[in-house]
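Hi, here's the filled form for the chain we discussed.

Project: internal
Contact: R.S.
Residues: 227
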Amino acid sequence: MKKIFIAVAILCAGFAVKAQDKEDATAFAKDIKQSGVQVFDVRTAAEYKTGHLPNALQADFTQKSEFYERAKYLDKQKPVYVYCLGGGRSAGAAKWMRENGFTKVVELEGGINAWKQSGLPVDDAAVKAPQLTMDNYNQQVKVKGWVLTDVGAAWCPPCRQMEPVLKDLLSKRKDVKLVKVDGGNDTDVMKAINATTLPTFIVYKDGVEQSRFTGVTSKDNLDAMLK
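And the returned structure, exactly as it came back:
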């Protein structure tokens, strides 16, 4: 009898843990306001542009190389609240993250569809800024001195990780001009300068490209490229 009781207790505990892995829109909205929470949108970039949850990072779960690359810049020790359109892709993404060392992953039950049906707001829905033109871009980079182009986006995990690095660098290197290219909007410029990965950094000196790299690096490495 004691063994049966223990088995039932373990089974109930398993169901309790599984229940905590998903939250309805109301609970999800409340919990993502907590400090240190990472909100992860695993839809496509095009879907993200139609409206997303506040402060959400993005990686397309259907594009596995992109998803794995961006997911590695999330903090595995901090909670990740993940969602997609209806819950299917986020379930797959959450399963992969749990199997790969993320300590707490919570799914939005019913996805952003359920979020909207609950009357909760989304950010940047149907908002699209004018694209940066190549003429404008060239005017900014073809100048005397050092220029650092940052091709990134606020919703890109490695780009977000590089923000304090760039801030620290520019606070010490007043001679460096920063040019921002929006990786979610300025697609014509990205194509022209062959920047296909976020983030991409391009270093110019007196209007001539000197070097470039993609991904995350240190302030010291950036500084060394600007000498």
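Let me know if anything looks off before we file it.
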